[in-house]
Amino acid sequence: MTFESAIFYFFAAVLLGSAAMVVTIRNPVKSALFLVLAFVSAACLWMLLKAEFLAIVLVLVYVGAVMVLFLFVVMMIDVNLAVLRQGFGDYLPVGGLVAVLMVVEIALAVGPKQFAADHLAHAAANAAHPHYSNTRALGLLLYTTYVYPFEIAAVILLVAIIAAIALTMRRRPDTKYQDPARQVEVRAKDRMRIVKMRAEPKA
Question: Domains in the chain, ordered, with CATH?
């Protein structure tokens, strides 16, 4: 086993372990932190595959922006852990079936047919070319071959953003809210009253 293969298996093991902790741990904040570790491990794997642009984007966009927003939303919606623990075993068979189906689909998508030795050798030869740019190659693939999946992913992200905003905008009975429209319409005489009082003589 070469040194590069050992590093690959190390980061792959960390990625699988952190991904398992994301879906099994009960604390949402700790789950988000393990998801950060999974993203960083995936970025390291992208670096080993000579896809530096994807690795940097994964760290900057997902770890630096999306996960911060996710933690902000988790803290804003005030998740009740006691409610999450109820009925966990009832959904375990369905969750296990969905997980098995996802693993099968991923295995079919990234199997040996798409990642055969000749494909990897061709990709390595292109990456070794002095004028090769993986950013340009990625852009050509995204906006030509995979333009429709790229647009569908963008719509899904937009729906997720709207859902996160809707969760934070819910009304709580124990929280005081301010109406900006009423604040703008406030006049000075509505907030301040001048009272005339008689001066008292000195004793």
Answer: 1-86 (1.20.120.1200)
- For residue 115, which phi and psi values (nearest 5 degrees)? -125, 50
Tokens 């369905």, located at residue: 94
pLDDT in tens, the chain (203 residues): 788 788 888 988 999 899 888 888 877 778 888 888 898 898 888 888 777 888 888 888 888 887 777 777 777 766 665 565 566 667 778 878 887 888 887 777 766 665 554 555 555 555 556 676 777 877 888 888 888 988 999 999 899 889 878 877 766 666 676 777 877 888 877 777 778 888 777 76
Burial class (CB in 10 A: 0-12, 13-18, 19+), 38: buried
Tokens, residue 102: 């996802």
